[in-house]
Amino acid sequence: MNATITLWIVAVVVLATLALGLAGVRGVRMDPQEYIVGGRRIGAVLLWLLLAGEIYTTFTFLGAAGWAYGKGAQAYYILCYGTLAFVIAFFLTPAIHRIARDRKLLTGPDFFTERYASRPLGALVALLGFAMLVPYVTLQLSGIQILVRIAGFGKIDPLLAVGIAFLLIAVFTYLVGLRGTAWAAVAKDGLVLIGVVFAGIVLPSHFFGSPAGALDAVLHDPLHPNWLTIAGPTAPNGITWVISTTLLTACGFFMWPQSMAAVYSAKGEDTLRRNAIFLPFYQLMLLLVFFAGFAALEIHPGLKGPEADQSYMLVVQQYYPAWILGIITAAGVLAGLVPAAGQLLAAASIVGKNVLADYGIARGDAAQTLATRLLVLVVALLAFGFWALAHTTLVGLLLIGYNGITQLFPGVVLGVATRRPSALAVGAGIVAGLIVLIAFAILGIAQVDGINGGVVALAANVALLAIVAAVVPANRTAPAALPDA
Amino acid sequence: MQGRTTAVICALIPFLALTLGVALANHVEPRVLGLPFILAWISGWVLLTPACLWIAYRSTVR
User: Fold this and answer.
1) Which of A85, A313, A469, B54 has the fewest CB atoms found within 10 Å of its own CB?
2) Mutate which of B43, B45, B46, B62 to disrupt the A interface (most A C-beta within 10 Å)?
3) pTM across the whole model
4) How far does CA A38 lie from the centroid of its chain?
């Protein structure tokens, strides 16, 4: 009975949100410009939601609470990096937008193709982005699976539910493109806000009198000493790790192809600057998510490893009526599905544009839009396969993707400048960074003296870039070899 | 040019506060509004960062 009520609420809310997305693009004719970057006419409010979509994913909804639950204060890094990412964005994104508009860039990798006059570099960046987006989409799937399992009280097959959800989102993305995704984000963010306020304020107040009461309970819990402060510099995941990871992920934040697409889609540079100023406020919602995680630790202790991702959802399931569980689950499912739509679109568009179209495999607007749409389905299937085969924690999946995508940061920053290094130097740096990351992954190294391994990879990247740039002078024969798309 | 300098300084402040500052503020006491000091410090800077960026904006644009 309970499971029926919850799942009906989830189904109705999800379908209504997708309908909103469809309504948002009614009468809009789809060409690559419109499909991938919303015709570059996305105004301040929709842009805010697109950019913020990156913050409110399943990762925030479940993973951040899971970290507060399972690991304590090191979860604070999420609050720090999101804020600093917007400081970087304030300076970097208007310049990227200006170049993208002047040169009619469509995808993140186009930036590399154009600025370094190299199609192979663009293709390399596209393939890297594609590879890093698969674990990110998988993260959303794992989150949805957790939610559906809890909401269904174990009575429905999560594989089936995730399969349906994903088919739905793949078809949705196929139809609506970026603008429709932004419209779906409107409903998603509203609902997530309700869910987060409930989990972070109402729930802890109910059990401990106030959110601060939940923190007090954690402080006095002998099982979790020093849970609310970050461990020392040499400890694993201690303060050195927190600072290095904050810096690394802040640099990586806008390197994702879907973030670059959001930057391109803005109406103007000033829209981006004003968004960057106010977006840190959105981050405060994470504080409530931490409260929820800490409260769950005291109400429902004993979850180990990846189970911690379920933290407060289990509390909601046990202590609250089915309709509340339904609404919160729906918010969480949307927090997975809507960003997944943006990520599918980004992964598909970069391969469709920078590999298929730029190398003449898909010619003309119609062929390119069709190729991108079909690739959306391919990426969805890949992520679904990856999800069915490999199960990891949400944070683990996110950090894999971030370490890889951050390798693009030097190339983007230098690409804004008037004097730029050669494509070879940038490409060599990216490859060096990836080799370090792959070696670390094989050897099982995540941290070097407490520093996040991704920082070491980024250092190798910058070092090789500098060496090659010194040896091979930049080719100043730009404008680039961008074919007429 | 002077506006640019102001903007860069405004950007550096949140960076220092949310990296080195976090290392220095890593304590439970004194509590602020019931929050451990470290969490209050980070949240405070999340709120102050828009102010820093606003100053940077006013000093560079127009």
Assistant:
1) B54
2) B46
3) 0.86
4) 19
